Amino acid sequence: MADCEPPNDFAKFMFQTSTEKSPEELVFHLDHPAFRSGSLEDMQLAYAKKLVCGEHVLLVDQASNVSCKMKLLSVDKHQKLATVGLQASAWVHSQSISERTVPLSWLYGGSPIVIEVGSFPVRLLRREVAFMWPGRCQHVYIKRGVEVLGDDTGLGSILLGLTKGQEFSVNIDGEEYPIKVDIKALALASQSNRHIKW
Q1: Which pairing describes strands 81-85 and 56-61: parallel, antiparallel, or unpaired?
Q2: Pairing state between β 194-197 and 25-29
Q3: Is the pLDDT assigned to residue 81 strictly greater than 90?
Q4: Contact of 143 with 149, CB cutoff 8 Å
Q5: How many CB atoms sit inside 10 A of residue 16's CB?
Q6: The sheet that has 66-76: what strands, in order across it?
Q7: pTM summary value
Q8: Please, which pLDDT band fits residue 6 given cuts at 50, 70 and 90?
Q9: 197, 182 in Cβ contact below 8 A?
Q10: Could you tell me which of 36, 16, 45, 18 has the C-alpha nearest to residue 107?
Q11: What are the residues facing 71 on neighbouring strands?
Q12: With the C-alpha atoms ordered 72, 54, 120, 137, is the resulting torsion angle positive or negative?
């Protein structure tokens, strides 16, 4: 991705921390007015209402170039600290609850960018879209024309359809948002990476 200009500072950080990207990876990013300035501070403000204990947050440690999705366990607003833990699914693998206290400024209530493989299924993409959206979402659907895509449809199929002129959209609580291939990013990117925005 070195020869690609990511859409904003947050995306630049995500590209920087995503190492050894496979040729199959796709970048799915949200083109939303709240993120057009490209500043990390504006993105943090856009997601501030989603910093809720028990919900997923994105931990962004720029000092060590680490970013990961975790659960927000507690917040100490006076000390400006938060305790985060691995997602419940990761607890099974680690056989313990891994907790860490971090500065509150390291946390985002969402992320405007997702980097996934082409086989990443729509059922998981819907969750990621809800995490990407700066507000609360009740219902998220991915559609081709008027048809709601099945849970097992992969992100790569969406890209393939877009390049063939098919129309796709994200439906959030009844509002439609078109999915597009980012032609500028495609032109700048290496052949091994593809960009999709909505």
Answers
A1: unpaired
A2: parallel
A3: yes
A4: yes
A5: 14
A6: 99-103, 81-85, 66-76, 56-61, 107-108
A7: 0.76
A8: very low
A9: yes
A10: 45
A11: 56, 85
A12: negative
